[in-house]
Amino acid sequence: MNKANVLLIGTGGVGTIVACGLVYNKKASVSVVVRSDYKKVKEHGWEIQSCDYGHLPAWKPDHIFPTVDAAAEVGVVYDYVVMTTKNLPDVVKPEDVAAPAITVGKTTVVLIQNGFDLGRPFIAKYPQNFCLSGVSHIGSHNHGGVISQTQHDKCLVSYFENPNLGKEEQEAKAKEFIDLYSNDKNSVSYFPDVKWYRYRKLVYNATLNTACALTRVDTGRLALSGTLEAVSIPAMHEVIKVAKADGVELPEDVINTVVHSDDGDWFKPSMLVDVEKGNPIELEVILGNLLVVARELKVETPTLDLLYHLLKATQFKLKEGKGLIDVPKERSISSKFYS
Amino acid sequence: MNKANVLLIGTGGVGTIVACGLVYNKKASVSVVVRSDYKKVKEHGWEIQSCDYGHLPAWKPDHIFPTVDAAAEVGVVYDYVVMTTKNLPDVVKPEDVAAPAITVGKTTVVLIQNGFDLGRPFIAKYPQNFCLSGVSHIGSHNHGGVISQTQHDKCLVSYFENPNLGKEEQEAKAKEFIDLYSNDKNSVSYFPDVKWYRYRKLVYNATLNTACALTRVDTGRLALSGTLEAVSIPAMHEVIKVAKADGVELPEDVINTVVHSDDGDWFKPSMLVDVEKGNPIELEVILGNLLVVARELKVETPTLDLLYHLLKATQFKLKEGKGLIDVPKERSISSKFYS
């Protein structure tokens, strides 16, 4: 049997360990795209200190490419393109990033990324391709080409439903990918209801993660200042309402569980960490995509709307800081009439 | 005729120039309370570089005290207590700060401070005293005891209506204070409708100042990111609605005027400057007091409410930074049930 051809895009802490798991299994030929550390990694590989795979002083996958174009130019038809980049469609659209490596009707896209309704732009662009979902619970970081994995690689795999393909085929495709990726070191399993799971995550991410990013306090201080109860909990009720309108019933005590999930920690959620580091936040996939669905289902979400529109200003500044937006030195005078 | 006894509390850039204007006029005996620079100022006075009064290398008022208690202990009955501190009732209540120097039924309080409905706690505590309002348009800063006044001292004086006193008496008292303070260098005038004027200022301060403080962008970037139109303009409509319910008609084009007031500048409003400096923000007097009135008048203000509750978290962190709030090193585990 020929090995499956897998191209992984995004070799941060998560992506590198996913690639590691695929290579360890020996069922796939694993290629990766490395942007910033290409030269170093091409020559010396990664140093990986992993709680799952031990100390790998110079780990390399089968092929290393500096760009997706370079990976496409070698003429391989990829069976899977696994995306483990941050998902920032307002900076660069992931379905465009992956495009050169995707063969229509052939390549399965696997999105191991944070966020909600991530499959929609891929299915719109590649209606004949499978699009899988991976929700990762790993703890792993890339510090300049040195990977430090401190929490076990646990990943729940499912599919973003593509109405052009049969459900059974899609489920089978998810299980085929699990077969490539799952091994005796990691915990990769099939989770049937991706929609339920991603709504469940939003109860935290769309409400606490966003409010902390905006106000720059951890979840503990958010509670002490009263903002948790005045803002985040009403926002959680809105997430639950959208889910319900979308046919997803979340557990009755979900709010209590979510609020208590950081008990005992002054915990800084991922968006706050990004804001503090000056990195663009995953605003569109964590909150923007939810609001698109809310509008389609005609559910009102005033608290989430306001969090979103306020975070647009935060995101503007983060993008400007990264040179992604250029603001002229002199502010021009607008003639617009505001009312 | 005896000179009026005036005690001024708060010798920042604004307060020092107000004191300067009173001294210049020679109609009052002017005492001031100086907290941080007391020793230096008591000995050497202030160096003032003023666009109104010129260069004063070692300016001193008639009396300098280190505390309000010290000013009260000398046995003088103050005709006026002028407050030019920042107004931060969630840190320290100004009506308590001034208390030792206030003689019931005698001392007129003059609040030359930012914010809305500032008279309420003074009138509640001192129902037989006059409470005047000063809205200052000066540009002046205190850099470690050196005062740099770059914009003309223009001040509009009126009264916060005290229902226990006659309107004519209150107007007369405002004009009496103007007579002490107004001189040939400054522009101090009577403005009949303090409520109108302070609502008018809120159209900017409760909406743009707050949103910029929260998102940490200037008003120009707030417009470019879309947050101005999505958040601040709806908030302006809410201010106008509260004003209307309170009997105050703002001009039809007020929103357009307010939005264009920073045209051509990447302008950072005062609350954003405070956030960047790590200073507590005037959240309660700029936004909290407005929401109290909105609740009394049963006007819904969902956008302003959310801005307020989010800024409570910002304020929490600012107060913690100044040692005004103590957060334990270990976060305790709450047993509260959230729903």
TrEMBL record, chains A, B:
Pfam families for this protein: ApbA, ApbA_C
InterPro entries reported in the protein's UniProt record: 6-PGluconate_DH-like_C_sf, 6PGD_dom2, ApbA, KPA_reductase, KPR-Related, KPR_N
GO biological process: pantothenate biosynthetic process
Enzyme class at the top of the EC tree: oxidoreductase
Segments forming domain Ketopantoate reductase N-terminal: 6-161
EC number(s) recorded for this UniProt protein: 1.1.1.169
Gene Ontology cellular-component annotations: cytoplasm
Family matches, as SUPFAM superfamilies: 6-phosphogluconate dehydrogenase C-terminal domain-like
Catalytic function, reaction form: (R)-pantoate + NADP(+) = 2-dehydropantoate + NADPH + H(+)
This protein's UniProt keywords: NADP, Oxidoreductase
GO MF annotations, alphabetized: 2-dehydropantoate 2-reductase activity
Keyword Oxidoreductase found: yes
Domain Ketopantoate reductase C-terminal: 193-314
Family, as annotated: Belongs to the ketopantoate reductase family.
Described purpose of this protein according to its UniProt entry: Catalyzes the NADPH-dependent reduction of ketopantoate into pantoic acid.
Protein's UniProt name: 2-dehydropantoate 2-reductase
